[in-house]
Specification:
By secondary structure, this protein is mostly helical. The chain has two domains: 124 residues, no CATH class; 44 residues. It has seven helices and two strands. α6 packs parallel to α7. The radius of gyration is 17 Å and the shape is globular.
Length: 171
């Protein structure tokens, strides 16, 4: 179970704006002590979204640890939806709930059908890396993490194993 820290935040740069005149409080995952949600966790049918929300919230209050909210995975989501990362961050800073962020993403950027979202999520989960460097990265890390279980095929699987989202059994 993830450790949650209670934090509050207002405008990310500290200046009052029309949307940040009050402080918002919510449970924010302290990523210095526990990982964000898995990239496999679904929110509104999207993979990656819940994890990106966790990382962005934690970053806004200085609890991101070694995690970077606008990373390669987040970029995959932003590119698919046609949403600017700064616009996403601003909505998170408003204190929106997961459900509110999910509803906002459905009506912002590139509008997607349910089938497009399902297909994209499937492709993200099972997409093997395209470059030699990424393939080597996953293979190298898989061998370090679990030398007796080398059937890690995707970045999502590697992340889940590294963060203890699930455990492997040896063959």
């Amino acid at each position: 179970m993830a450790i949650l820290g209670y934090a509050s935040f207002s405008d990310p740069i500290g200046a009052p704006t029309s949307h940040a005149k009050r402080s918002y409080s919510m449970d924010i995952r302290d990523l210095r002590n526990a990982p964000p949600r898995s990239p496999n966790d679904l929110l509104g049918g999207y993979v990656i979204l819940a994890r990106t929300i966790d990382k962005c919230r934690a970053d806004l209050v200085g609890m991101a640890g070694d995690y970077h909210w606008n990373c390669r995975l987040a970029t995959m989501f932003f590119d698919f939806k046609g949403i600017a990362p700064d616009m996403f961050r601003a909505r998170i800073a408003e204190g929106l709930t997961d459900d509110e962020i999910q509803a906002w993403t459905n009506t912002t950027g590139t509008l997607r059908t349910e089938d497009e979202i399902l297909a994209w999520s499937y492709d993200c989960r099972w997409n093997a890396p395209a470059t030699t460097e990424l393939k080597a990265f996953i293979e190298r890390n898989a061998r370090e993490i679990s030398p007796n279980y080398l059937y890690i095929r995707s970045l999502f699987e590697l992340i889940d194993i590294e963060e203890g989202q699930f455990t492997l059994t040896a063959r």
